[in-house]
Specification:
The protein has 447 residues and is α+β, with helices and mostly antiparallel strands. The chain folds into three domains: 100 residues, Rossmann fold (3-Layer(aba) Sandwich), CATH 3.40.50.20; 70 residues, 2-Layer Sandwich (Dna Ligase, domain 1); 238 residues, 2-Layer Sandwich (D-amino Acid Aminotransferase, Chain A, domain 1), CATH 3.30.470. Helices cover 34% and strands 27% of the residues. The termini are far apart.
């Protein structure tokens, strides 16, 4: 097992990884920008090293600075968390080349799944159902129009190197496609440095279902159930549930088993999430995330496993300590992502936390790096906490989440807590009658 792990991240996920390492008897190294000198992960780690100024490209995205910190501190391994360099194949390869263990998937799998076209091609080759679309990137407007005619409208223009909803534009008919192409290419170039796009069928009212996979270095692969991540605004997830309401036991078993079999065929290692759109009883593969997901706590709550601990054990060469048949799911879990944003416009609202009180009680978990007096910097993602609740069933879970949101106090800046309170109380959400468009419609309703 490792003696010391460097955590190449910040905020709640850095604290989350730190806690898992400490419970395993592993010392931790926090890296931070100058803006994060007083951050919680810096305060809690055994050691801390400043790696640059506030802009992420000069600190948390600075590969050389992070590897230098690992060398200086004598770390054995690097855990990337999520975001920043977590799905950067070059960083994963550099980590291994410099003699450190990368706590995550192999560089070749990160690279494969980071290319959305290659990922769909690979998924198709190993038997996963995919959304109808082009086999590769589309060139000019004329080629795109021909492809869209074959697929059938509406279509979605998507960045080849996309993620987080950027570089995605729908076109309902031929007249809208040229503008959608132009906008998607410009957004993709700005966000990912590549203007390549492809087309796929635009499903009207699907649900977003993802399957959690865990694999070791010995060919053992299991699935840990699925999550429903359909509650999204601007392609950004807001609320996640496990297990997914609306799926029956047979569907759950089928999609979990096929996802695990697919990654076993790839020789995959570590955690990963296979993502699908689900509509009219059918699943369509859309992408795979080769990292720990923001919403991993809901899976932990229903299966009783520590995913970060399992990542570390797998990276250290330890085999999984359980088989698929030994995994049991218990109850229901819901996660609300709390962002420092205006609850109506979702405009970021950084600032000083004047007062902070986290909810508690049976089945309530808060993953956060906040404390009273902390100043949320304007340089990074606006998510400041995750509120996760677990109950014996979904109804109990909803009542517990409602109570926990009422208890949660974050004063001094705007947060999305009021939006979560409204969503949790809505009858359609309570009944589980929602899809990936529902939250946009909900937010547009007059109040």
């Amino acid at each position: 097992m490792f003696d010391k792990v460097l955590i190449a991240n910040r905020g709640e996920i850095a604290v989350r990884i730190l806690r898992a390492c400490r419970e395993m008897g592993i010392r931790t190294v926090a890296v931070h920008s100058t803006a994060d000198a007083d951050a919680m992960h810096v305060r809690l780690a055994d050691e801390s090293i400043c790696i640059g100024p506030p802009p992420a490209r000069e600190s948390y995205l600075n590969k050389i600075a992070i590897l230098s910190a690992a060398t200086i501190s004598g770390a054995d391994a690097i855990h990337p968390g999520y975001g920043f360099l977590a799905e950067n194949a070059d960083f994963a390869a550099m980590t291994e080349e410099h003699g450190f263990t990368f706590i995550g998937p192999a560089p070749e799998h990160i690279r494969l799944m980071g290319d959305k076209i290659a990922a769909k091609r690979a998924a198709r080759s190993i038997g996963l159902p995919v959304v109808p679309g082009t086999e590769g990137a589309v060139g000019g407007e004329a080629e795109a129009l021909r492809a869209a005619d074959d697929i059938g409208y509406p279509v979605l223009v998507k960045a080849v190197a996309g993620g987080g909803g950027r570089g995605m534009k729908p076109a309902r008919d031929r007249s809208e496609l040229p503008a959608a192409l132009k906008l998607a290419r410009a957004e993709a170039e700005a966000a990912f440095g590549s203007a390549e796009v492809y087309l796929e069928k635009y499903l009207r009212r699907p649900r977003h279902i993802e399957v959690q996979i865990l694999a070791d270095l010995h060919g053992n692969v299991v699935h840990l159930g699925e999550r429903d991540c359909s509650l999204q605004r601007r392609h950004q997830k807001l609320i996640e549930e496990a297990l997914a309401p609306g799926l029956n036991a047979d569907q759950r078993q089928a999609i979990g088993a096929s996802s695990a079999a697919a990654l076993r065929a790839l020789g995959y290692r570590s955690v990963g999430t296979v993502e699908y759109l689900y509509e009219d009883g059918k699943f369509y593969f859309i992408e795979m995330n080769t990292r720990l997901q923001v919403e991993h706590p809901v899976t932990e709550m229903v299966c009783g496993l520590d995913l970060v601990r399992e990542m570390v054990r797998a990276a250290a060469g330890r085999p999984l300590g359980f088989t698929q048949d030994e995994i049991r799911f218990s109850g229901h879990a819901i996660e609300c992502r709390i962002n420092a944003e205006n609850p109506d416009t979702l405009v970021p609202s950084p600032g000083r936390v004047a007062d902070y009180h986290a909810p508690g009680g049976l089945g309530v978990r808060v993953d956060s790096a906040l404390y009273s007096g902390y100043t949320v910097p304007p340089y990074y993602d606006s998510m400041i906490a995750k509120l996760i609740v677990h109950g014996a069933n979904r109804n109990e879970c909803l009542m517990r989440m409602r109570r926990a949101l009422e208890e949660y106090v974050i004063d001094g800046l705007e947060t999305t807590i009021p939006l979560h309170r409204r969503v949790i109380a809505d009858s359609a959400f309570v009944d589980g009658e929602y899809d990936i468009r529902w939250l946009e419609d909900f937010a547009a309703r007059p109040r």
